[in-house]
Specification:
By secondary structure, the chain is mostly helical. 85% of the residues lie in helices and 0% in strands.
């Protein structure tokens, strides 16, 4: 396999590096999302109940101890719950956006890898074709079918590899983005329930 890939030219290395980076980002985000999924969102009902009962200190201790996106958002909301509605909503929106940015970390890099991998492959193909035609020129214009075919398949190798890296990378990116959207919706639902609980206590 190493000997086969080495025939693709100098751009095989960068394309393989892109595949390693894409896999590393995907696995890191999966682990991060698994941690978020296992804790945090069950806080909403308990915090809302404490707020309705007037046990704000218990609610704050609960959110601070959760170490989760939902817990951090609710902590910021609890800290300004006695201020005006506009301030409360601003703090909630800002905190939610911060958590979404954290969940979206590296996703832009993943999208970039998915975009440049086929371009690197195409560049490798162009360079390979240039070399193939240079060989033909050195042969005095006498076309040797074997030499030409060998040069062409070696050139096309980088395009195939670039596409092989780009396709799963873009699928992984779309999947992770959909997960972020789900978490963002859960965060918004949680803050809405919190605001409703504040209204019910008065």
């Amino acid at each position: 396999m190493t000997e086969f890939l080495s025939k693709g030219g100098i751009l095989i290395g960068p394309i393989l590096l892109c595949s390693v980076l894409a896999l590393a980002i995907f696995l890191e985000r999966l682990i991060r999302f698994a941690q978020v999924r296992l804790r945090g969102f069950e806080l909403v009902e308990r915090v809302a109940r404490y707020v309705r009962e007037g046990n704000d200190l218990q609610a704050l201790n609960l959110t601070k101890g959760s170490n989760s996106p939902m817990g951090r958002v609710l902590t910021h909301a609890l800290e300004v719950k006695d201020q005006d509605r506009e301030t409360l909503e601003t703090v909630i929106v800002h905190s939610t956006n911060e958590e979404v940015r954290e969940l979206s970390r590296y996703l832009q890099a993943l999208a970039t890898i998915g975009s440049i991998a086929p371009l690197l492959g195409l560049l490798g193909t162009v360079l390979g074709m240039i070399k193939a035609f240079m060989v033909i020129q050195q042969m005095g214009g006498k076309v040797n079918a074997a030499v030409l075919a060998g040069g062409i398949w070696e050139a096309m190798l980088t395009t195939a590899l670039g596409l092989a890296v780009a396709l799963p990378t873009m699928v992984a990116h779309s999947y992770l983005v959909s997960r972020v959207d789900i978490y963002e919706a859960k965060l918004k639902d949680g803050t809405i329930n919190f605001i409703k609980a504040l209204k019910r206590r008065f």
